[in-house]
TrEMBL record:
It comes from Pigmentiphaga aceris. Residues 9-136, 150-289 form the EamA domain. It is found in: Membrane. Keywords: Membrane, Transmembrane, Transmembrane helix. The chain crosses the membrane at residues 7-30, 36-56, 68-89, 95-113, 120-141, 147-168, 180-204, 216-236, 248-267, 273-290. Its main location: membrane. It is a multi-pass membrane protein. Pfam families: EamA. This is EamA family transporter. GO terms for cellular component: membrane.
Length: 299
């Protein structure tokens, strides 16, 4: 992995690490569906402005439908599931569960996409999962039906992410590729259609009064849409194109690291030896998964 790719991986992890904190601010006030809709709507608007300013050529090379459907899998469903989970789970729990994406990718890749996974990468995934569990150090929650539902929602989201990485390679990269900004814009357009339908359904079936929303909630929603989604997905799709889905998904091991860091810097949370141990395991996991495999010698 090139140094520039590793740098982009860390930047992406820093951004997405903050998304769980932002959701914990917005979801209790706005609700899960409005938060997810606001996130993708702001992201699509931000990408539209960015693509226009940068004068990106509007040529999807016949892949617009693929990017729209990709948005359902890579943004719409996962964002909605994590928003539901934010109603009942602490941010650290969601971050830990988010780190199961590489594990999901290994299972999905080997089962559905013929991906060959060696023992070294499996060891890296195991170390990474152990590292984030130690690192976040979240206290145990009683396994009530509500908590289990939140955990299930997170796992649905990570399964979608696992599929999306391989589908991006199959639908986009292997068909000639596409500018990462257009992929991001098309995917968020698809997510807006999906979340818009969910929002209309909720308003029709369970109408609620507009809550009183303070400035911090609106700022958190703006950050979710414009920074954690618009900008972040441009980075993510470029990484998928450059280093492939397996390595790009290693960003999920780094997300809890930054979640802890933001908590220490912004929420005055204490650091401990567990953070050093967990961070070390995460670093080793990244190295193992990113390490090039030796080619097989055939007779």
């Amino acid at each position: 992995m090139r140094p520039v790719d590793l740098f982009r991986l860390f930047v992406l992890a820093a951004i997405w690490g903050g998304s769980f904190l932002f959701m914990r601010v917005t979801v209790p006030v706005l609700g899960a569906v409005p938060t997810a809709f606001g996130r993708v709507a702001l992201a699509a608007a931000g990408l539209l402005v960015l693509v226009s300013i940068m004068r990106v050529r509007w040529n999807f090379n016949g892949l617009f439908k693929q990017t729209v459907f990709l948005g359902l899998i890579n943004s719409g469903i996962p964002f909605l599931m994590f928003a539901f989970a934010a109603q009942v789970l602490p941010a650290g729990y969601s971050a830990i569960l988010n780190a199961t994406v590489p594990l999901m990718a290994i299972v999905i890749g080997s089962t559905f996409f013929g991906e060959r996974v060696g023992g070294i990468k499996l060891a890296g995934v195991a170390l990474g999962l152990a590292g984030v569990a130690i690192l976040t150090g979240a206290g145990p929650l009683a396994l009530t039906p509500v908590v289990l539902a939140g955990v299930g929602a997170c796992l649905i989201a990570t399964a979608c992410y696992g599929f999306a990485g391989f589908l991006t390679r199959r639908w986009i990269t292997q068909r000639g590729g596409l500018d990462s900004r257009l992929v991001a814009l098309g995917s968020q357009t698809g997510a807006v259609f999906f979340m818009g339908a969910c929002l209309v359904w909720q308003l029709v079936t369970t109408p609620v009064a507009m809550p009183v929303v303070n400035a911090n909630v609106w700022l958190a929603l703006l950050a979710l849409g414009l920074v954690c989604t618009s900008f972040a997905y441009i980075l993510y799709f470029q990484l998928l194109s450059d280093i492939g889905p397996m390595k790009a998904m290693m960003v999920t091991f780094l997300i809890p690291v930054f979640g802890v860091l933001w908590g220490w810097l912004l929420l005055d949370e204490k650091l401990s030896l567990a953070h050093a141990i967990g961070g070390g395991l995460v670093a080793v996991a990244i190295w193992l998964v990113a390490k090039p495999e030796r080619p097989r010698i055939t007779a």
